[in-house]
Write a structure and sequence with these properties.
This protein has 760 residues and is α+β, with helices and mostly antiparallel strands. Among the domains are: 193 residues, Aldehyde oxidase/xanthine dehydrogenase, molybdopterin binding domain (Aldehyde Oxidoreductase, domain 4, 2-Layer Sandwich), CATH 3.30.365; 145 residues, Aldehyde oxidase/xanthine dehydrogenase, molybdopterin binding domain (Aldehyde Oxidoreductase, domain 4), CATH 3.30.365.10. Helix content is 27%, strand content 25%. The chain contains 20 helices and 29 strands. Strands 4-8-2-15-12-13-14 form a seven-stranded mixed beta sheet, sandwiched between helices. Strand 20 and strand 21 form a beta hairpin. The two termini are 38 Å apart. 55% of the residues are buried. About 1% of the residues have low confidence.
């Protein structure tokens, strides 16, 4: 269920936007006809599998593949020797830059295995059984090295060193020795000492989070076919077919123009499928074998060899006056990057204080490599971690000052015209409205029982634009096809069709959305960062507007009137020329039927780089009950308010909010990577890696605050990232009030909660 709080006249004149049509791909998905990554097959296809390191850190002394190559049915074997050596080069092709050397070495270990599960060889064989047998026949000689996984241990002097070439960037002085600290970043404003001196109250806290996985249900899967003429095709479960094409070309030394990538349906990604793991291996195997190769990860491989998000340690120091005005804030963030640099500590730093107007602050972030899988994006990368720390500290401040937690946020809230902690000035934001919506909601005043607590927290995400392409084609029957280059992760087919239908004046059922391959549409940045509805939607809208302009021109030609005397209303051209009053409108179907005589096919394409994405703010309220005997935490009630710009399809927006909350609750209560003394992951499966299921959650109520983004034709803002930012702190704050103990380390698993109760 949800409420929609709208700033009139946000929906004035709209007929499709804001409605809830059936999803275009719904029937295929519920009947099993939709083709996901593992569903695709080609004649003569081989099975590809990967041999992975059993060690968290080990020098690879030798790899002997002779016995495996001699096995009947084995058609190809690749190791790092089959991939070109790449220099360190930053390349923008995913959610942020990727270092091509690191990406290549993450796909296939070179010199050292850097985490349990790191790929060291891959085989292609005529069956899965033969491929498994071949893996067992590959002999790898390792020199096991000391490992380090804890982020602060990795930063300490004398820690096992992952990379001899890694020198900390961002320090005032050039370091003379390599370390595991890849980079330091800092954001500052004002005079920190002066700000703390002006405070009546100063409090400090240290907060710890564990690495958690995105938990998508569909594992990574692809089929690659390398042809004898050098052309190749890839069918892949990913969040961006152009990203797959670029990375495969770079990692294999191929021309991007020689690779065609077709996106399959995607069974979840949440940022975790914004990079490549299998695709370059499958292409290399196919090139060697001369046959198509299919690769599908097991769940164990997904956990051990693909990117979770960072575990982290965050310290927060806040200073405030007795009436609750924050005078100073100091935040230090230490994030695991995994085996290669590139944790989300920069966005974590940028979002840490984004909800607050703080005159004096310093935010310092550390990007630290560890012997664990290279991290990948996970919904609002970095922001949930920093929000957990800052929002927990804000809750402690509210308790210490005796101030209502929402009132404390209102007093310090950013508003239109306020300069964000990370730089720009906010415009057209609905943050205060989210606070008011929770404050005025019946949930906030509802009584609580014994062992129950209520927690409040807020969160922020930038949202982004970027490169997008779209085409709109009108059929001879008056229908329309919308073609885009973004995989449908969270309902973009429906939103694209709805925006085109709104412009064209068609029922949405007459607009068919298509996700095209890399050879069939212009370049599009991947689906990530909550950009698709904003950026690709802008391209779709502009293409549809070009169609309308063309239709008006055609109608003017038929009527022999200036095009200025033609309007487009409700899917038809209307003649405004007084001299021709009474002419019946020309419908889109009527104009399509005459297209051959008025200029040929009716089609338009737009490629753009969208700018002006509106940021998203969320305010969450959570009720819990804690069993004092077991420490088990039950979520009783959850309400989430979010500034969504304009809800193109409100049901999808509600789903995004509810999904983000569910994942955040799992992060708060259950989920974590557990490693043994040798650095091996102990819970690499859904039985032991405890994700929440439906029975763990109440109905999550979503409140949609519509503060339109003027940079988008329909006011859209991204909605997929912000919902996961507040839940970690909202749950922790609720537990704090239920047991009267501040717990600062996630997850709040029953043993930890019971121990905290006992210690109290």
């Amino acid at each position: 269920m949800s409420d929609v709080i709208d700033r009139p006249p946000a929906r004035a004149g709209l007929k499709v936007i804001g409605t809830r049509p059936v999803r275009p791909d719904g029937a295929d998905k519920v009947t099993g006809r939709a083709a996901f990554g593992a569903d695709f097959a080609l004649p003569g296809m081989l099975v590809g599998k990967v041999k992975r390191s059993p060690h968290a850190h080990a020098r690879i002394l030798s790899i002997d593949t002779r016995r495996a190559r001699a096995l009947a049915g084995v058609k190809a074997i690749v190791t790092a020797a089959d991939f070109p050596d790449l220099a360190s080069e930053e390349y923008e092709a995913g959610e942020g830059a990727a270092n091509l050397r690191d990406l290549s070495q993450n796909c296939m270990a070179r010199g050292k295995a850097l985490y349990d599960g790191h790929a060291v060889a891959a085989v292609a064989a005529t069956s899965a059984a033969v491929a498994d047998a071949a893996l067992s026949l590959i002999t790898v000689d390792y020199e096991v090295l000391p490992h380090v996984i804890d982020v602060e241990a990795a930063m300490a002097p004398g820690a096992p060193l992952l990379h001899a070439h890694l020198f900390t960037q961002g320090l005032e002085e050039t370091p003379q020795a390599p370390s595991n600290i890849a980079a330091r970043n800092e954001l500052t404003r004002g005079d920190l000492a002066e700000g703390f001196a002006a405070a009546d109250v100063v409090l400090e806290g240290r907060y710890v989070t564990a690495a958690v996985h995105q938990g998508y249900i569909e594992p990574h899967a692809c089929v690659a076919a390398f042809a004898s003429d050098g052309q190749s095709q890839v069918w892949s479960s990913s969040q961006g077919q152009f990203m797959v094409r670029t990375f495969c070309a770079k990692l294999l030394g191929l021309n991007a123009s020689d690779i065609r990538v077709t996106p399959s349906e995607i069974g979840g990604g949440f940022g975790g499928k914004t990079t490549v793991y299998l695709e370059p291996l499958a292409l290399a195997l196919s090139r060697q074998a001369g046959a198509p190769v299919k690769m599908v990860m097991t769940r164990d491989e997904v956990f051990r060899a693909t990117g979770p998000t960072s575990g982290a340690v965050v310290t927060v120091k806040l200073g405030a006056t007795s009436d609750g005005r924050i005078t100073a804030a100091e935040v230090e963030l230490k994030y695991q990057a995994g085996a290669f640099p590139g944790s989300p500590v920069v966005p974590g730093s940028m979002t840490a204080l984004a909800c607050y107007d703080v005159p004096n602050f310093r935010i310092t972030g550390w990007d630290v490599v560890t012997n664990s899988p290279k991290v990948a994006a996970y919904r609002a990368p970095g922001a949930p971690i920093s929000a957990f720390a800052v929002e927990s500290a804000m809750d402690e401040l509210a308790l210490k000052l005796g101030i209502d937690p929402i009132a404390l946020r209102e007093k310090n809230a950013v508003r239109d015209g306020v300069k964000a902690a990370y730089g720009p000035t906010f415009r057209n934001i609905g943050y205060v409205e989210t606070l008011e919506a929770i404050r005025d909601h019946p949930h906030y005043q509802a009584p609580l029982g014994r062992n129950q607590g209520r927690g409040f927290a807020v969160g922020f995400w930038f949202n982004i634009g970027g490169e997008s392409s779209a085409a709109v084609h009108v059929g001879e029957d008056g229908s329309a096809t919308v073609v885009t280059g973004n995989p449908d992760v969270g309902g973009s087919r429906a939103s694209m069709a709805m925006m085109a239908a709104e412009v064209l004046g068609l029922p949405v059922e007459k607009v068919r959305p298509i996700v095209a391959d890399t050879a069939s549409i212009g370049f599009s940045m991947l689906t990530g960062g909550s950009r698709t509805t904003f950026a690709t939607g802008m391209a779709v809208t502009q293409a549809a507007q070009k169609i309308v302009a063309d239709l008006k021109r055609r109608a003017a030609s038929i009527w022999d009137v200036p095009v200025e005397n033609v309007d487009w209303l409700d899917g038809a051209a209307v003649c405004l020329d007084p001299a021709k009053a009474g002419l019946p409108p020309l419908t889109l179907a009527g104009l399509a039927a005459r297209s051959a005589k008025t200029g040929g096919p009716i089609t338009a394409e737009v490629s753009l780089t969208a700018q002006g994405a509106g940021p998203g703010f969320a305010a969450h309220l959570c009720d819990v009950e804690v069993d004092p005997e077991t420490g088990h935490v039950t979520i009783l009630r959850y309400t989430a308010a979010q500034d969504v710009g304009r809800a193109i399809h409100p049901a999808y927006v509600e789903g995004q909010i509810q999904g983000g909350v569910a994942q955040g609750i799992g992060w708060a209560l259950n989920e974590e990577y557990v490693f043994d003394a040798e650095g091996r992951m102990e819970n690499a499966g859904f039985l032991d890696y405890r994700m929440p299921v439906a029975s763990d959650l109440p109905m999550i109520e979503a409140i949609l605050i519509e503060v339109a983004n003027p940079r988008h034709p329909f006011g859209a803002k991204g909605v997929g990232e912000a919902p996961i930012v507040p839940p970690l702190a909202a749950v922790a704050n609720a537990v704090r009030r239920a047991i009267d103990v501040r717990m600062t380390e996630l997850p709040l698993s029953p043993p930890k909660v019971r121990a905290a109760i006992d210690a109290r």
